[in-house]
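Researcher: Good morning. I'm working through a list of sequences from a screen, and I'd like to move beyond sequence-only analysis. For each chain I'm collecting a predicted structure so we can compare shapes side by side. This is the next one on the list. No need for commentary yet; just the structure.
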Amino acid sequence: MGEVAETACEHCGLAIAAGQAVAASLGGETFTFCCRGCAGAYRIITGAGLGEFYRRRTRPETGVPEGVFEAETGDGYLEKFVRPTANGAEISFLLEGIHCTSCIWLIEHLLARTRGVARAMLNYSSHRLRVSFDPDILPVRELAGVIRSIGYLPRPFSLDAAHSLHERTQRTLLIRFGTAAFLSMQLMGYSLALYAGYFRGMEDSSRTLMQLLSAAVTTPVVFFSGYPFLAGAWRSLQNRRPGMDLLISLGVLAAYCYSLMAVLLGREVYFYTAAMIITLLLLGRLLESSARHRAGAGIDRLLRLSPDMALKIAGGRETPVDCSSLLAGDLVLVRPGDRFPVDGVISRGTTEVDEAVLTGEARPVLKEAGGEVISGALNLTAAVKVRVARAAAESFVARVARLVEDAQNRKAPVQALADRLAAVFVPLVMLLAAGTITYWLFRGQDIGSALLIGVSVLVVACPCALGLATPTAVLVAGGSAAARGILFRGGDVLERSAGINTVAFDKTGTLTAGQPRVVAVEAVGGGEKELLELAARLESSSSHPLAAGILAEARARGIAPGAASAVRVIAGRGLILAAASRRIVGGSRDFLEESGIEIPPLPSTNNTEVHLAVDQTYRGRIILQDRLRDEALIAVRELGRAGLNTIMLTGDNRAAAGEIADRLGIAYIAGMDPQAKTAWVNKRISAGDRVMMVGDGINDGPALAAASVGCAMAGSTDFALDTAELVLTRPNLLKIVEALTLARRAMRIIRQNLFWAFAYNLLALPLAAAGKLAPIYAAGAMAASSVCVLLNSLRLSRVGKDHRRFEAGDD
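Model: Good morning. Structure tokens for this chain:
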């Protein structure tokens, strides 16, 4: 446990006023606290076996957020921010009072041990805490109370709160930099006077005065402006994880302390070196912070597509309400010029809608009563009433934003090497600096000169560039892809996508539009209406595109399919309805024949066929035709030009599959069930291929999971979207070409970043050790190194929208 001054609170570190100390005896020892809240927090933390927190932590600021122990938040308010999930619920908090990475460690570990909490993830840069929990075991109010009990103030996450936190951080950093820059300019005048005196002579009293003034100006630069570096260095020592801040602090303090000693001994001082190192590095951090904010702005742009307020209609009155309070079934009014606040169905009215958020094309789409609308889409022409389909937290925009955020938290495998090297880099640099100083002392250099060379070695080293090389590129690429309707579920997916050499497509709903229409009903031993009625009843509970086509034809002919509750789905093959009176079987020709049903000779077609039988008696077939997607041919050709193998895997008959394949110029395998598709994917991967599987249905799920990268498009089943690692939010096959191009460019940027980080350190460290690089230039070079990596990564955000042509050599 870290030592705390006798007059300071054991938990929060604040000074305790006379007569206000709260004493508590714990484990045979007596501790003092500033209030009973801190005493209670201390008991909770140590009682949970997490007392190591007090040893690991460092606090740039003392105290806890004002009112943290007194704050109360009602269930009714917090419930609006709870998002139901398959395994319970999830809520995001913005935490106040986080001071260092030890706070992250404490909160995540304590919540992990809290009954009812399934998962807790806290982002240090944004201070956003996402908690998955069971509200039946742990109500959301009690969850917030657990967090408050250890001294952190949870507020429901919102974009405005996050931006306020970012602005406060930027303002503090700007104040520190402004102070350092202003005082460094003053220091420059004193330093010029000292340099002039060195060459032309200066009275001892004047030189001492200039040196004392330099010391006075440098001190606030080092200890106020440089506080983030000093605090980071101390934190790294406590956690036994030396980092870049430790190198910087050692270099700055060495120059500062030596200069103080030099004032007393009448030697040359180097205050300007210490001050300029801090100033230049703060400038670098300002630029880094701005670049990181730009890199993460993609999520903000997505979330801001949905308005914060909506006009709810209840009791014949229109009331402005917070969108987070809307529930499924509520009725809202959306006026022309407004964006739809949630996903829903138009209840009354007709309008044109700009769905660029989904399709990427800002062309009006006519929406009538019964038409579905998505959150973020723009209402263009008339006011409409919309029935809410799902809560705001489950809207299209919110789900896309969560996918992007989750993806940016997943590391690419290439980052593991950089992380391991960064971990041993700092100790090696410290040894090199010590060896450099010793070497130059033996070579006859005075202590001041040798020390400056050692400072250069400490300051010029840049493990930060190594650490930033991969995550910044993944962050920018993920945000840039999301803005184009492409969601990589993580840096690992981005890296694997860059190496894909084979793309396998499902047919129906992927290469075709997924809107098959009935072109013929051929009944055997009965009428067309009877056959269509049988098929509609069988398909009434299915979400397959063929089912939608059959049901649409049935409705057009005035047939209302009866409810079927005992339908068994054989994925990729067909359906079986075992009713009390009869047994109906529908599906492919092979499926019926395997079920022992004899099918008479029928003329072959190049379309999709659904065959039906009742009680083992064949009753006929329904023929459906689906059109190719407009962009399918271009997408397949572009993939082929890039040297990728393309193939179509379908459960359809050979004639229908062959007709589509011939038009696309693509290889194909017909009559494949889900197991056969999965086996094919596994076989190709075992042979050394890196396979992307593109599908849209439940039957594609196993193959999507088995592929090197599984890809699903908007409009796919929820199962396919959950299984896929690459999701296209706009149903356009050219997005696959775009995604693979972006992945290749991202990996190229990552390799460039890593090369620069390694090359910079390999060149700069020998120059500094040889005395060829002054500390001021070393500081500038180090700051420039990190900024270069960030700026190179930001090039990914400026990639043009037309990715349809792969660049030679991208892979």
